[in-house]
Structure prediction request, 84 residues.
Amino acid sequence: MINTKHLLKVTAAWISIVYVICYLGVALFPGIRPGFMRYGLHMGIDFGQNVLNFGTFISGLIIWNIMALVAVWLFAVLFNGIKK
Prediction:
């Protein structure tokens, strides 16, 4: 059995660190985003300008934490629920 509560805490810490690194990468190197979209997500999209401010940082951090927590919670439920 996976300790779901501990796993969710670790997930929140992990995604927060990844998000901060990503946000700083886009802030310091704006040209990195189109390259990531093309090679990491296999699509070429022109988004216009980057909108980087404290509000978008906090809202993105919250959104990515929610998505990661839901995904890992579902993983833990399935892992603990599916018998070998």
